[in-house]
């Protein structure tokens, strides 16, 4: 379960270097990443947890950049 938390530190860390990673972008990234990870693993859409983590983190970064 510790793997789930690692990619959620990224929005907070990126906030020091990238303005879009602050406020709404960071919140949207954390919600998106966690939701997609749970969906991928619970619904067995992606069997490998590390690949599920990669795609959920990638989607979180995209959402952070859009918001």
Automatic annotation (TrEMBL):
Ranges that cross the membrane: 21-40, 46-66
Keywords annotated in UniProt: Membrane, Transmembrane, Transmembrane helix
Domain of life the protein comes from: Bacteria
Name of the protein: Uncharacterized protein
């Amino acid at each position: 379960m510790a793997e789930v938390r690692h990619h959620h530190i990224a929005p907070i860390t990126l906030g020091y270097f990238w303005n879009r990673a602050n406020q709404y972008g960071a919140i949207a990234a954390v919600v998106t990443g966690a939701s997609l990870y749970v969906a991928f693993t619970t619904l067995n859409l992606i069997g490998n947890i590390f690949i599920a983590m990669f795609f959920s983190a990638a989607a979180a970064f995209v959402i952070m950049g859009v918001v």
